[in-house]
Amino acid sequence: MYHKLLSFVLFQILILSTTSLPAQRGLTEVPDPNPEKEQASFQVADGFEVNLFAAEPMIAKPTQMNWDTQGRLWVSTSETYPHVKPGEDANDKVMVLEDTDHDGVADKSTVFADGLLLPTAILPGDGGVYVANSTELLHLKDNDGDGKADETRIVLSGFGTEDTHHIIHTLKRGPDGDIYFNQSIYTHSHVETPYGVKRLLAGGTWKFDTKTLELDVYSRGLVNPWGLVFDPWGQTFETDGAGGQGLNYVFPDTVMFTAANAERTVTGLSPGQPKHCGLELLTGDHLPEGWSGRYVTNDFRGNRVNSFELSESGSGYIARQTDNLLTSNYVSFRPIDILMGPDGGIYVADWYNPIIQHGEVDFRDERRDHEHGRIWRIVPKDYKPESITLPAEAEIGTLVDQLCSDQKWYRDQARYELSSRKPEHVFLILDEEAVDSHKPWNEAQLKLSGLWLSEDWNLPEEIQSRLPKLLTYDNPQMEKSANVQAAAVRIAGAHPEFEDWMDWMKAAIEDPHAQVRLEAVHALRHAGTLEAIRLAATAVREENDRFLEFSLWQTFRETESVWLESFLADPNSMSSNPNTLLTIANAARSAEVVDPILKLWQEEVIPAEKTSEVLSLIAERGNTSYLQQLWSVSQQPNSPHTLAILNTLVNAAERRKIKPNVSDEDLMALLKSKNGQIQILGCRLAGLWKVEASRSVLKTLANKETQPRSLRKTALQSLAQLGGPDSRDYLLSIAKGEQLKALQVDGIEALASMNLNLAVQAAVETLSQTDSAAEVNAILNPLLSTKQGPNLLTRALQDAHWNADVATAAVRMASSLPQQNLALVSAIRKAGSLEAMKAELTAAEMQELVSEITSQGNVHRGEEIYRREKLLCMKCHAIGGAGGKVGPDLSSIGASAPVDYLVESLLVPSKKIKEGYHAVQVVTIDGIVLAGVPILENQNEIHIRDAEGKVNVVPVEDIELKKNSTVSLMPADLVGKLRRDELVDLVRFISALGKTGELVVSKQQYVRTWEVLNPGDNMKAINDAIRHNGIEHAATDDPLLPWTTTYSQVDGSLALQPLAWMGNIAAKNLQFARFELNVIQAGKIGLKIDDPTGLRIWVDQIEVKVEPEIAIELLTGSHRVTVASESQARSMKPIRIELIEVDGSNGQAALVNN
């Protein structure tokens, strides 16, 4: 089966964001809108101070802001949001704010335009201002000089408006003079241009040339991208207001999470970080030490402004969260945009609203704020800005000087102002200044600006003459030389018509810096010739460069018709790098690529560590002859690939219904193997291949009580696949409890796959004979995960009588089905004599409960309840990136949702579902039902992540029905079994998440995802295995050691109390845990241990000396760290380990949060 209904149930556990938060009707404490009181709540970073730049009545409800070259702040505002009320006219505005006396406070406010509908973005330029106005991009202009727009031009139209907070937004001007802007996941745009209709069918970034009206898709994906900025070298970064990966590195043709029809995506730089809105790069020598060069963005849910430091890693970057710039506990403080200004200050647009949910909240909720909004100004303490000529007033010479400013604001505005001057005059001064410059930074900025301006002016001869020096730019005193080259390659890539273009690309693809090669790959992909693709294939130098590898995969994917014939004739004609060869093969749609890859693997040209990729390729596309070759390899004595190959054969049989030609005798040998994993895989193959000769052996395995339950269960499933009366009768006797009582639940599941009606009858009878709800999920799961199961169960229940506890558990399962089945729920309630549950609290009851939560709830007890295995909250949600991935990260949920709505989301979960997390129901042609969150969907297949974290891949051709779930997967009575005091504590914990002064996820890189040794019922055997083989055996790859995933607490510590004890191991009682590191750049990697008492640590299988800080020399790739804890020696103190940087080391690593 693709899916077990248990996943349905796991989904339900605390889907606070998947089911999201219902309307904030019960918000009882709306903060005083007095700006002074709001400002009093601000905690600003050391060395800074904050003042109010503008507030109502000068400004209200800002959505974006941008400066013009005169130093005026233009702001789009929307008091209409989220919609126009019936009978009312939209009257949103464009405001212009000025600080005429330069005291850091706006003293002039002008309504430049009104009568707009939901303007979400603004950018001054071309003698007026560009405004994103619902479905249109407008250009407004003041022709008579009265400060108000009197000309409106529709520049582009046809942008989607299905969701008003997903319409186009975030207008930013790139260094090349083009305008870049975003749209979000539920927006489908079809825009008519002089060059044809341009389409973007979900989230992504547009790139628009205002001179030629060329509109192109720059990147695709993200849920709600609402922050965009360029670094000094033209590289792009974005934030996502509804994602959870922090900063995102975005380059041409990037495909990210949620992109429409995506076949592969790249992830962000900071998984597990808050959702962010707005983005700015801080620059300037006037800033406090350490702040220039940081990226700042708004955690609008958590009422704070975060900061990040980026460091280069291969072709991309690594992000590290640093100190918050601004923190507040004022619930209405909602920072949504951030910019530096001409005075060196940092300006923060404050949407000011106690309510931030969109579709989750009634559009007419009376607590929505439509009147207030502020712009805050953050500056260094006692800062006195220098008097600098504004770009609009400057001569060309002054503007050229400003291109070298330490402040990005002046560099960007000066470049834009220069674009309005005569090119010949600009180049005369700019080129002379570049020659005379004695500062590498200045020289680089001047030369790049000359190239960018040439591109903006569309001067091919100038571009062609300037490129050679920049493509080979190498100043020993300039550590960013490669970034200059990369910027030049991007411009060069757009001009394949130049005579020297291919020579330029050859030089770029051989550059030692991966980012230069990344830009060359983009260019070569668009060239699309065989020569260009062969050249691109030489780009990879090292492993683990995910951005370069993605772009290379994308290149091969889009150009398969160009290179396939050459590759099949001689793979080395494309590349001799085994990693690249695998990338080529994985990118191909053709199954013909399997043959050369399999040969290279058998010849050991492709190294053994790449075996899993080779086998996956064969499982997906190989024919029976290739499977036959794999089978032969697996049968070689002591073959290291046997288990992997057998898994491949299972996958091929399940997904593609193909098999090698294997004799019954050879298959039976697997069933009799002394290796338990081989036996299990042999059982699976016996059933999938329908080997009738295996029937008696499968029965023997199932009947033998000394065999592991996993093996016996697999044998039953395989017997069901063999089919026939013998299997039916045998499984029915087990399902009815007539034999092998310990396997009754497994018998029902196996029987359901061959005779659903009999399985339903056995299940109803079994549950009628028990008072325990412990097995309800396991028994009903295989029935309800089929198309006909719910209806058959409804009919079978007509005369049934179940214990109330059993019926209650069954109701939870039934109410969690992706499509409502009220008849089934009613039948279960009747069988258990259950009264209908009260769905909602009265206003008085809610008020009483909220008061109890805030006054008596205990955060620490609540966290313990949240972590209970039976509740399984962590199966669906992460905190700080650690936990389930089917729902959004809950790191800041408490800061964005009032307490009463946290309660209501548990009691009435089906009112709203958060964007990006709609569950889907898929019914296959075999009648199997799957449910989960789609993470990738294209024309060929859909990838659905279930609540266990498993990704089910379903070919489109196997789908009979696919539709969004109409109800929340969270059962309405989920908390029904909690005592009132437990519910109080649970909600108190959730309400504290993300709140300043309460449970804020630390910026430190603590280990948050662990695997712990958990033998369960097999304790003695596992204990003996470690005791006999030594403590270090726990650090090996022994597949029989049962590791299960768990997560650190919010403070980053791993509690030891739940971990299993291994007794008498070298005369000690020990507990074992492990975590994974991904080393991106080889070197010394640091770990900091809060208290090393009683700990022993192995990195991979090598023990290291345990000290408070450890530095380990590691190569690139994945590394496992195993910890043995003599926990009594450390008085059961939790383990907390932090990934840290090592002084003087180039090593870079990231913690793996699965």
Descriptive overview:
The structure is a single chain. The protein is of the alpha+beta class and 1154 residues long. Among the domains are: 6-25 and 840-992, SH3 type barrels, CATH 2.30.30; 35-380, Neuraminidase (6 Propeller), CATH 2.120.10; 1009-1151, Jelly Rolls. The strands form eleven sheets. Strands 36, 37, 38, 39, 41, 42, 44 and 46 form an eight-stranded antiparallel beta sheet that branches. Strands 1, 21, 22, 23, 24 and 25 form a six-stranded antiparallel beta sheet that branches. A five-stranded mixed beta sheet has the order 11-12-15-16-20, with no helix packed on it. Strand 22 and strand 23 form a beta hairpin. Helix 12 (546-558) crosses helix 14, helix 15 packs antiparallel against helix 16 (611-621) and helix 24 (744-752) packs parallel to helix 26 (776-784). The radius of gyration is 31 Å and the shape is globular. Residues 1-28 have low confidence and may be disordered. It holds the Pfam family DUF7133. Residues 1-23 form the signal peptide. Keywords: Heme, Iron, Metal-binding, Signal. This is Cytochrome c. GO terms for molecular function: electron transfer activity; heme binding; metal ion binding.
Brief account:
This protein is α+β, with helices and mostly antiparallel strands. Among the domains are: 6-25 and 840-992, Roll (SH3 type barrels); 35-380, Neuraminidase (6 Propeller); 1009-1151, Jelly Rolls. The chain has 35 helices and 46 strands.
Helix content: 25-40%
Determine the N-to-C terminus distance.
Answer: 23 Å
CATH topology of the domain at 35-380: Neuraminidase
Strand-residue proportion: 15-25%
Mean pLDDT: 90
Main sheet record: 8 strands, antiparallel
